[in-house]
Design a protein that fits this description.
The protein is α/β, with parallel strands linked by helices. The chain has two domains: 207 residues, Rossmann fold (3-Layer(aba) Sandwich); 152 residues, 3-Layer(aba) Sandwich (Rossmann fold). The radius of gyration is 22 Å and the shape is globular. The structure holds adenosine monophosphate (AMP).
């Protein structure tokens, strides 16, 4: 299949060429024709699959084919984080280079200029409004946002939004939209709460699911069989004073565990910070920024950060415990070895989690080497 098969407007074809895309990705092949036919969609697709273009291109195409430019919000894209809002806005701007469509990312922060800019764009009726739920609700409460002519609603990284507790906010926003609209939902995973949300807001959706994910081949995976009380000493021995490990992520299942590990690593003089759902958005962004800028060595995190946003050059991923879901394992270790670099992923398995780990080995289709514990443990 090629992009020509979609018979896009010439302005959109030029936009695709400018972005350097030659061939549609699988999610684009499956989603674009359905979206062009006006169908609702629920798609299981991760970041990196080309899902953004899959929903942006058909909508831009529709706008480009209209005889006049609209002066109201046509498409609302709800996203979990500011970073994702900015990334999507950049893609819209790129594809729309030769057409008159406009977009604005709307996200939180204390910057007055930013707020005023967002307000001006909303009032002037931007085509694409790309917003985090909290900030959009703030604008909605001020009374100048009109969503009553929205034709397309997109929920991106829906599973992550629910993990972050945005369910109610999403429903408040959806209530302000016309009932007759096209709704597209993208999610990296399809747990029960996502299906329930889909039932509430989608209308007879087409389901799109890409084949299950497999870890990249350039990740060296290994594991330790280790009791809980020895895990911290093992972790410290792996990272302390290692000049080849400049950035590592340690995943834990619960936020209390994240806080605990962060505290103990700092006590052991390892430079570490934690990120979890108790931190507000601004704090989380600050932690992520500092991590990207290599201001500290170890990021301790719950699964919230394991999906979505790209962080390059992670040398090591440690699963402090075995993830419940094999898909989560693949997401977690996928943080290392991005863009052709090599990476290492280590998992700590206690006695109780041996079975779960076997499930992961089955899921990825190969056994993972168990490294003996260092002699001093
Ligand atoms: P996404 O999954 O939407 O976050 O996209 C991941 C990356 O793939 C982005 O940098 C896109 O610019 C790029 N991309 C999306 N579709 C294509 C395509 N058909 N060909 C080449 N690159 C693409």
């Amino acid at each position: 299949m090629t992009f020509d098969d979609f018979h896009f407007h010439p302005d959109i074809i030029d936009g695709i060429k400018t972005m350097g895309f030659e061939q549609p990705t699988p999610v684009q092949e499956l989603a674009i024709p359905n979206i062009m036919q006006g169908k609702d969609i629920i798609a299981c697709a991760q970041t990196g699959t080309g899902k953004t273009a899959a929903f942006v291109l058909p909508i831009l195409n529709k706008l480009a084919s209209l005889p006049v430019k609209l002066n109201y919000i046509n498409t609302l894209i709800i996203v979990p984080t500011r970073e994702l809002a900015i990334q999507i806005d950049q893609q819209v701007e790129g594809f729309a280079y030769f057409s008159p469509a406009s977009s604005i990312p709307v996200y939180g922060g204390n910057d007055r200029d930013n707020w005023d800019r967002q307000r001006a764009a909303i009032e002037s009726g931007v085509d694409f409004l790309i917003a985090t739920p909290g900030r959009l609700l703030q604008h909605l409460q001020m009374g100048y946002v009109s969503l009553d002519r929205v034709e397309h609603l997109i929920l991106d990284e829906a599973d992550r939004m629910l993990d972050m507790g945005f369910n109610e906010d999403i429903m408040l926003i959806v209530k302000k939209l016309p009932k007759k609209r096209q709704t597209l939902m993208f999610s990296a995973t399809m747990p029960k709460n996502i299906r329930e949300l889909a039932k509430q807001i989608l209308n007879n959706p087409v389901e799109i699911s890409l084949s299950v994910s497999k870890p990249a081949e350039n990740i060296l995976q290994a594991a330790y069989l280790v009791d809980d009380q020895k895990k911290l000493a093992l972790l410290t021995s792996l990272v302390e004073g290692k000049s080849n490990i400049q950035s590592a992520i340690v995943f834990a299942s619960t936020k209390s565990e994240v806080k605990d590990i962060e505290k103990k690593l700092i006590r052991d003089k390892v430079s570490a910070r934690g990120i979890h759902s108790d931190l507000d958005q601004q704090k989380r962004e600050e932690v992520m920024r500092d991590f990207r800028n290599r201001k500290f060595q170890i990021l301790v995190a719950t699964d919230i950060v394991s999906r979505g946003i790209d962080i390059e050059d992670i040398d090591l991923v440690v699963n402090y415990d075995v993830p419940h879901d094999p898909e989560d394992y693949v997401h977690r270790i996928g943080r290392t070895a991005r863009a052709q670099s090599d990476g290492v992923a280590l998992t700590f398995i206690n006695k109780k989690q041996k079975r779960s780990f076997e499930m992961i080995e089955k899921f990825i289709g190969s056994p993972i080497y168990k490294i003996p514990l260092p002699a001093n443990l």
